[in-house]
Design a protein that fits this description.
Distance between the termini: 50 Å
Shape: globular
Keywords: Signal
Order of helices and strands: HEEHEEEEEEEEEEEEE
Strand content: over 45%
InterPro entries: PorP/SprF_Bacteroidetes
Radius of gyration: 21 Å
Number of strands: 15
Number of helices: 2
Structural class: mainly beta
Protein name: Type IX secretion system membrane protein PorP/SprF
Length: 338
C-alpha cells in the first residue's frame, strides 16, 4: 500500500490536472514569449535578457517554484530605420503612434538565444537548458514571419530524502531512478508587425518515457507535447496611452483546453498596469516600469479561483529584464505588444 501511495503521488505530476501541466506556468508570458516560442529569437535590435522567479500557491508546503534566465539576440549587423531591428532616433518613444504608422518590416535575418529553467514541486525537480535559432522572413512592407527551433536537455529528478514512509526500508524505494536526462525539442512560428502579433509553438515535441522506478509496475509515465497559440494587438487610446489586449490557448493532453486573456495599459512605454484571467484557475494583477534604456521590472500576483483557494494564498511572479547593445538608447520594453 505504501509502495502504491509513493508512486501514485509521483504520477500525479505527470498526468493529473492538479499539477496543471509538466512545464511551468508564466503569468507574464506576454512580456517574454520567447520562453514558450523559439521563433522570437533575435526579434529585437538589442540583446534581450530576462531573469525571473515564480512562487506558485503560497501557503501550500512544497508548492511549485520556478526560476529562469533567458537571452536572445539577432545576428544582423545593420541598424535600419523604422523596422523591428532598429528603433527611432535616440530617446524617442519606440512604439509611438507616429512610429507605428510609418513602420516597415525588418529585413530577413537570423536570431539565436539560450535559456535555462528550474522547476521544483515537492520531491520532484527538473532543469531545462538549451539553445534556440530563428529565421525572420520579410513578407511585405510591414509584416514578418519567423520560424524557430529550440534544442536542449532536461534533467528530471526525484529527491528520495524528501519522501517519508512509515517503513524507511519500504521496497518501494528499492528500485528508484533518482534522476534522468532527456532530449528536449520545441518549434514555433511568429507573425508580426508594428501593432500586432500571432504565433504558435509546441514544446516537448519528442515524447519521452518518464519513470522513477525500474519496476515494470511503475514505468507508464511519459512526457506529452504542450501546444500554444497566442495573439495580441496594440490599440492607441491617445498619443501617450495604449491598450494591448492578448489571448493565449494552451493544450496539454489529457487536460481540457486552457485560456489566458490579458489586458495591459501602457503609458509612453515607461510604466504600465494590467490584468489577466486564466480559465478555471486564477485572476492576476500586473504592473511594471521601464528604467531609461537599460532595464525593466515587472511583477504579477495571481488570485487563485480554483478549489485550491481554500488553502493557497495566491502566486507571485517577478521578472527583471536587461537590454544590452541598445544602439538607439530607447526606453526599455521595445515593441511593447510583446
Amino acid at each position: 500500500m505504501q509502495k502504491k501511495y509513493c508512486f501514485c503521488l509521483i504520477l500525479l505530476w505527470l498526468v493529473l490536472p492538479v499539477w496543471a501541466q509538466q512545464r511551468p506556468h508564466y503569468t507574464q508570458y506576454i512580456f517574454n514569449n520567447y520562453l514558450l516560442n523559439p521563433a522570437l529569437s533575435g526579434i529585437e535590435n538589442y540583446t534581450d535578457i530576462k531573469i525571473g522567479h515564480r512562487s506558485q500557491w503560497s501557503g501550500i508546503e512544497n508548492a511549485p517554484k520556478t526560476s529562469f534566465v533567458s537571452a536572445h539576440w539577432n545576428l544582423n549587423g545593420d541598424y535600419l530605420w523604422r523596422n523591428p531591428l532598429s528603433l527611432p532616433e535616440k530617446g524617442d518613444d519606440p512604439m509611438s503612434r507616429s512610429y507605428t504608422q510609418n513602420y516597415t518590416s525588418s529585413p530577413a535575418h537570423h536570431g539565436v538565444g539560450l535559456m535555462a529553467v528550474t522547476d521544483k514541486t515537492g520531491p520532484i525537480s527538473r532543469i531545462d537548458a538549451g539553445l534556440s535559432y530563428a529565421y525572420h522572413l520579410q513578407l511585405s512592407g510591414a509584416k514578418n514571419l519567423s520560424v524557430g527551433v529550440y534544442a536542449g536537455l532536461s534533467r528530471i529528478a526525484l529527491d528520495v530524502s524528501a519522501i517519508t514512509l512509515e517503513n524507511s526500508a519500504d521496497p518501494a524505494l528499492a528500485t528508484v531512478v533518482e534522476s534522468q536526462f532527456k532530449p528536449d525539442v520545441a518549434i514555433g512560428v511568429w507573425y508580426y508587425g508594428a501593432r500586432f502579433f500571432a504565433g504558435g509553438s509546441v514544446q516537448q515535441v519528442i515524447p519521452q518515457k518518464l519513470s522513477f522506478s525500474a519496476s515494470a509496475n511503475y514505468n507508464s509515465g511519459k512526457s506529452v507535447p504542450h501546444f500554444f497559440l497566442t495573439s495580441g494587438y496594440k490599440l492607441f487610446i491617445d498619443d501617450e496611452i495604449a491598450a494591448i489586449p492578448s489571448v493565449m490557448l494552451r493544450k496539454v493532453n489529457p487536460m481540457p483546453l486552457s485560456l489566458d486573456a490579458n489586458l495591459k495599459l501602457d503609458y509612453k512605454d515607461k510604466i504600465w498596469i494590467g490584468g489577466s484571467y486564466r480559465s478555471a484557475d486564477s485572476f492576476s494583477a500586473m504592473a511594471g516600469f521601464n528604467f531609461k534604456n537599460l532595464l525593466n521590472l515587472t511583477y504579477a500576483y495571481d488570485f487563485t479561483t480554483s478549489s485550491l483557494n481554500t488553502v493557497a494564498n495566491g502566486s507571485h511572479e517577478i521578472v527583471l529584464g536587461f537590454q544590452l547593445n541598445n544602439a538607439y538608447q530607447v526606453f526599455s520594453g521595445g515593441r511593447s505588444w510583446r
